[in-house]
Every structure is written in C-alpha cells, then in structure tokens.
Write a structure and sequence with these properties.
With 118 residues, the protein is of the alpha+beta class. The protein has a domain of 71 residues. Helix content is 16%, strand content 41%. It contains one helix and four strands; from the N terminus they run αββββ. Strands 1-2-3-4 form a four-stranded antiparallel sheet, with no helix packed on it. The mean pLDDT is 82.
C-alpha cells in the first residue's frame, strides 16, 4: 500500500468512527406488555341482593405496542377480568373481556425534569 492509499483508508476509518460516536440511540419500536392483578368492582347497592366480593382474582392484560415515531405509537391490548359473588349473596360470576386499540404518546421528551431512563 502506498502512502495515498493509507491516508484514504485512515480518513475512511475516521469518518466511520465519528459517525458511530454521534449516532442517536434507536427507539425500541415494539413492546409486549403483560399485567396480572386483582380487581375490586364498584357495587351500586341497587342490585337486589347480588353483591360482588371486595377483591377478585384474576385480572389479566396482554398488550402489543408499536411506536411509529419516537413520540407516537399504537397499542392493541386484550383484557380479561373475573368477578364473583360475596358470601351472603346468591351465586353468580362475571367474566369480562375486551379488545382495545389505543393511540399512545411518550411524554419522556416533554418532561425534562425526569431522568432519561426510568
């Protein structure tokens, strides 16, 4: 290799390294979300003796989120909740399922007082 080729190679390596040093971190575009918990239904006390247990299990939520830009995205989620009867109530059970499509916004850039990674 002659001196001109070595200089060209060094310049190419230099520009390659500087472009990597200044690149922005890529936004995670896909997120899978899972939640498991309990629920406490609100009883309006006008249900003729049918009363819910105060704490019911399970509440399950599965979600898939895709960020279209670093701030805006869409989320599709599925939720299942089961509630049952109280001890001094006639026997019944309620199973509630839903599918939901939501627009999501990442407020992290708008809230400069929060740390970048939480």
């Amino acid at each position: 290799m002659n001196k001109l080729q070595i200089n060209k190679l060094l310049i190419l390596v230099f520009f390659g390294l500087t472009s990597l040093a200044w690149s922005q971190p890529e936004t995670n575009q896909w997120k899978f979300q899972f939640a498991l918990g309990v629920n406490s239904p609100i009883d309006n006390m006008e249900s003729d003796g049918f009363e819910f247990k105060s704490i019911n299990f399970p509440s399950i939520n599965l979600g898939l989120q895709h960020m279209l830009t670093p701030e805006w995205g869409a989320k599709l989620d599925f939720s299942y909740t089961r509630s049952g009867h109280d001890d001094n109530s006639p026997e019944f059970k309620l199973n509630y399922t839903r599918i939901n499509l939501q627009a999501v916004y990442d407020f992290n850039g708008a809230m400069n007082f929060l740390p970048r990674r939480m």
